[in-house]
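Recall the central idea of this unit: under ordinary conditions, the amino acid sequence of a chain determines the structure it adopts. In this exercise we apply that idea directly, starting from the sequence alone.
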Amino acid sequence: MLPIRLKNVVSVERLGAHHYTGKLPLEERTGLLYTCRGGLIDLGHVRASIDRVAFLYAASVRPRVELGVQGGTGVFVHNATTAEDRRAFAARGAYRLAVWHEQATTRGVGRRPYFAEDFSAGSPEDLYSDALGATIGLAALLDPRPFEEAVDDLLVRHLEALGAVPAGATKTALDRVEGQWWRRGVMVPDGALLLARRDDDGLPIQPWRLDADDAALLGCTANAESLDLPAAPPFTFAVDDAEPGSDARPERPWIGALRLQSIRLMPFELFAGGFGREKFTPSFGLRVRGGEARTWGGDARIVRFATAFADADRGTVFNIVGVEAESLSFCTDADDGTLHGPISAWFMACRPGGVGVGGRLLHAQYDGRTGRTIVRPVELTVDVDLLRNAFTPAWFTRRLTVAAGFGVDDVREGVRHRVIPRAVASLRFDLGDEDGDFGLRVRGSVRQSVTTFADRGIESSLRLVHRLYLGAETPRSIPTALIELGAEIGHAYWADPWTSISDWSLPLLSARDPHTLYGALTVGARFEAITF
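Accordingly, the structure predicted from this sequence is:
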């Protein structure tokens, strides 16, 4: 499967340890690697094919082998009895399963409810990678070492024999075939992403490689390496209950596909810093979210909680948001111009840009020293994408939005009580690199009382982050641990500090001074599943 971003590349020096069916996924690396003799290799396909060989060999003691496959139950019937014949059957059978996957995906058989894979059917590197995996799996069966230990060594040896290039050269190779094999700037899972699809699935199989001039840029001059598997005793393969589907690729392969870019699981962050204008008040605390989803048409978070301790000012502060959304855009259908709501926009192809909605449900803060409580039950905004790049890959590297809306603050402390309806306006700017390693976030907001002109709050903040991915060279579609290092500075002005509540910033606002300058260093961790 070709990537939409040139980041999921690996090098032969850092492949990690193989584990059957990926039972320890943080230890084994998947991704793309270019080889001089074998072209582009998808290690996800290689590892899956290796494991299929192991399964089929173990199961081949019976003449009938059943296993779950895309669209139903796959049934092999074979007459391999000797160890040599069973190994050959396992290798050929593993490749047959890979061919079925490509055929079923093309026809839309067994499509998942929230992710359609047919956009990537026939990707140039898939079946060659599957054949390579079957070759390595067969060699591992013959090796006297434990299967997984043998795979680790054999995988490196085979890739080196094919002329594996460094990770940077793989990125160069992908750049050279952009516009020929795949198209940059097309959103997954749009079928227009792939420009070249292979329709041959027989053995021996030839790799798709760069042309001679482009290959020379990588130092590749070797001839292509075709792959074949040993002949096996005759066997049959059929899929029970498979939907017949259509032989034609669907015109709208994205229908039914949830258009998520990433899911962030239990992100938390420790911070230490201080605030004040004339007198510096040290503070430290914790910020955590239950979960966060980044989509092509906006972001959503649940249960954002922060606590800070500033003994000389507010004491211990607790700040919580139940549900939060940014720029959930309406979708203008890419085909007929029909307007769809923000949530339905996650499941279809949309024209770039647009207008969305955002806001919060149940935003509250409690100050431990004074007992003051402020509750914002609901806040709704209309968000406008100024760069008109929502629903495009650029949305995840740069975005500029303005928002305007309305909210109500309920402030209580003892017998003192105020209800303050406020008009809200904000400006948000985000900038990041394609690999997600660095990020810049700028926020500014104005909260104006609609009953008292002098009563307003103004906040601004700037945040820089650097992310360090653990257990893998690059983010993958499985949850990947990462550490995030950050620095944040900001300024807030509240005409009446008693009514203040942290909006975008850390909960570091003075309870006494209308003006607050603050700064903090942060370190956080989370699991992040990158989808596309």
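DSSP finds six helices and 19 strands in the chain.
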